[in-house]
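Why should sequence recovery work at all? Because a backbone constrains its sequence more than one might expect. Tight turns favour small or flexible residues, buried strands favour hydrophobic ones, and helices have their own preferences. The token representation captures these environments compactly. In the example below, the structure is given first.
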């Protein structure tokens, strides 16, 4: 029995069939017209959107508002609860760098961060010595959308590069700020990826430019005080399948150009003693070879999967001869222990690894080779490694949390092994960890693979199948969803929900093989793992099929679309945020922003009939059929360059056409934002409150 009553007639998208043929196979798309022909220009100026498309999206928003009208008070309550768990005037613990320590803080009611610095040894809480470098709220005034890319100060601490996006399209504008006066210089650099790498003298910086298809295809060198049109082209990546970024080192010796797709890497380096030098190739790209570099004084440390090191190893090379033939092993490959990232300091090498599904930080003395690990005893937890802003240091910084334990920030002395607690996340409205239970259980997949599932619920929640459950999943790009503290989900858990995270294949939760077993030709495992998690939670009576609301976003939205087609009867409702659901059409169009770089993740259906068939077999939009679908909420962003707005719009149109059930199919399009949704911290809470209100309503708990 649907909980949605007396709804108005849902919008009906007109059909305008478009047929294409690939590999001799003809397909007809009735809703292709929802894609704006001028999408590149529209991302920069949303006002030029085709009026017919705008009218349809606005009609969908009106229908969605009508369906959710009776949750307005609930949304306000949820928002108030979530806001009440945030310390509104929170401040970071500043990170020491040279004569200063840098950090961010918020003011009560403020949506955006403020960047500050204090003297290096100044008292952290002393506001009289705090110099505000950038006020995010002030910069955002009068803008419906505003996101700051950060503030990167020069080595001499005189200037900072800061970037902003005011449309949600992820085309960032860079400006240069005089940190002494707080004023911006005349420099304006447009259409960038969001940041820059300073030259050591603070007189110039390097940055990436996005082309019309939103690809970071060029790196330029900008001299402060000159026009962008005079900037020197440093490197152009001609292969549209590769991403590119530029960065510096802690000791200001090199500029690193990182070129990569999802399975292949290439680095080029520029010595800062000769900024006009041609970027020097380190190891040429070879399909399947991944590596990343960090400074090490007279050596580079290289994290790589070379020579069959599936879970990665760390090598070193001389700075003067960094080519692959000169790499020497430092930390060997240990199958089943995945090295995720690495950092180097004057006397220590540091890396973050995942072993038996849990993270560890490992410290190695560069002189003696002695190693020790930082680990914790909880059943499931999250570690964050932020390291240090200085090379010649004994102290690094990391964070720890679990589903029940608020985040704790530590400084750690790598030599003495002393751990200093700097800050514990405050929950102003109160939080008692003893009221909750967190568990790590394993759901058997159809092929026998144990799928980890992290659970959070109140101790008094009945485990007899009656509890509603929000089951979250992602499962792509090797991204691991951490089992960290999340104050927002407490609004569900405190209402009797079981909150569950399915650590499905496609992520690296159980090593690199776990990722490989959920991509390309094996992508179906991702979807089967998620359904297996639902089966397990039902069988073990943590919840039941009639009480499970599934949630995922972006590539996790593809997961939502796939499980809606494969097992709709096992879910009471589905929330799909910016869902990548029109997979086949997108992967067949190499002009779209992320298509060529995505082929190593999904396969190339243009060149390969095999991958055409594989993707066609699971692509959510292409597999919608006449069946009763559960209640579905899809969310999109008009200027989203990653998952374009027309993907959820087309999917909803086809779902609504085909469903034989009575549950509504809803679409909410944020007309002022892109992939990340609303940019302000409280605006974002309003979006989460809306999603949770949908889950609570669908579960019959409103």
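From this structural description, the recovered sequence reads:
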């Amino acid at each position: 029995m649907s909980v949605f009553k007396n709804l108005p007639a849902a919008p009906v998208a007109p059909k305008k069939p478009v047929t294409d043929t690939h590999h001799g196979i003809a397909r007809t798309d009735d809703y292709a017209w929802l894609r704006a022909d001028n999408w590149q220009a529209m991302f920069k100026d949303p006002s030029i959107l085709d009026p017919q498309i705008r009218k349809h999206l606005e009609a969908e928003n009106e229908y969605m508002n009508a369906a959710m009208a009776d949750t307005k008070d609930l949304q306000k309550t949820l928002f108030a609860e979530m806001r009440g768990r945030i310390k509104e005037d929170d401040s970071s613990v500043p990170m020491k760098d040279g004569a200063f320590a840098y950090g961010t803080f918020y003011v009560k009611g403020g949506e955006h961060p403020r960047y500050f610095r204090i003297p290096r040894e100044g008292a952290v809480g002393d506001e009289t010595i705090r110099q505000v470098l950038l006020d995010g709220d002030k910069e955002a005034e009068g803008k419906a959308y505003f996101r700051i890319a950060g503030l990167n100060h020069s080595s001499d601490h005189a200037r900072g590069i800061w970037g902003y996006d005011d449309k949600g399209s992820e085309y960032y504008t860079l400006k240069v700020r005089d940190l002494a006066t707080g004023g911006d210089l005349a420099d304006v650099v447009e259409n960038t990826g969001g940041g820059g790498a300073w030259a050591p003298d603070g007189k110039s910086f390097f940055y990436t430019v996005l082309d019309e298809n939103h690809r970071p295809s060029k790196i330029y060198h900008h001299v402060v005080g000159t026009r962008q049109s005079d900037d020197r082209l440093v490197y152009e990546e001609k292969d549209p399948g590769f991403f590119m970024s530029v960065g510096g080192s802690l000791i200001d010796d090199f500029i690193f150009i990182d070129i990569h797709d999802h399975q292949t890497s290439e680095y080029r380096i520029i010595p800062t003693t000769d900024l006009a030098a041609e970027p020097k190739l380190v190891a040429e790209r070879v399909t399947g070879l991944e590596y990343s570099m960090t400074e090490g004084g007279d050596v580079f440390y290289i994290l790589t999967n070379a020579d069959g090191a599936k879970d990665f190893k760390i090598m070193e090379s001389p700075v003067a001869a960094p080519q692959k033939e000169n790499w020497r092993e430092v930390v060997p490959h240990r199958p089943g222990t995945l090295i995720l990232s690495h950092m180097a300091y004057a006397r220590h090498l540091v890396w973050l690894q995942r072993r038996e599904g849990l993270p560890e930080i490992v410290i190695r003395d560069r002189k003696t080779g002695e190693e020790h690990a930082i680990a914790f005893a909880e059943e499931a937890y999250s570690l964050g490694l932020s390291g240090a802003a200085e090379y010649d240091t004994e102290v690094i910084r990391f964070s720890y949390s679990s589903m029940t334990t608020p985040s704790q920030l530590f400084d750690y002395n790598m030599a003495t092994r002393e751990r200093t607690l700097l800050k514990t996340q405050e929950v102003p409205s109160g939080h008692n960890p003893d009221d909750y239970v967190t568990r790590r259980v394993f759901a058997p997949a159809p092929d026998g693979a144990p799928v980890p599932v992290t659970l959070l619920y109140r101790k008094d929640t009945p485990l007899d199948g009656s509890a509603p459950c929000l089951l979250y999943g992602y499962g792509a790009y090797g991204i691991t969803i951490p089992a960290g503290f999340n104050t927002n989900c407490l609004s569900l858990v405190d209402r009797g929900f079981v909150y569950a995270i399915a650590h499905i294949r496609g992520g690296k939760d159980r090593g690199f093989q776990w990722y490989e077993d959920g991509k390309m030709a094996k992508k179906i495992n991702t979807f089967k793992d998620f359904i297996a998690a639902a089966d397990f939670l039902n069988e073990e009576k943590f919840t039941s099929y009639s009480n499970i609301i599934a949630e995922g976003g972006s590539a996790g939205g593809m997961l939502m679309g796939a499980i809606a087609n494969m097992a709709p009867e096992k879910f009471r409702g589905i929330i799909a945020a910016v869902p990548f659901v029109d997979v086949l059409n997108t992967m067949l169009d190499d002009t779209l922003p992320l298509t060529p770089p995505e082929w190593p993740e999904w396969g190339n259906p243009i060149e390969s009939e095999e991958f055409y068939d594989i993707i066609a077999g699971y692509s959510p939009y292409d597999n919608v059929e006449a069946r009763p679908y559960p209640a579905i909420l899809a969310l999109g962003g008009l200027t989203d360059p990653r998952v374009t707005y027309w993907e959820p719009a087309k999917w909803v149109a086809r779902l609504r056409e085909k469903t034989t059930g009575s549950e509504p199919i809803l679409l909410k399009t944020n007309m002022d934002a892109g992939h990340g949704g609303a940019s302000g911290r409280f605006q974002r809470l309003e979006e989460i409150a809306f999603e949770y209100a949908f889950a609570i309503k669908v579960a019959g708990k409103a």
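A few observations help interpret the result. The longest strand covers residues 184-198.
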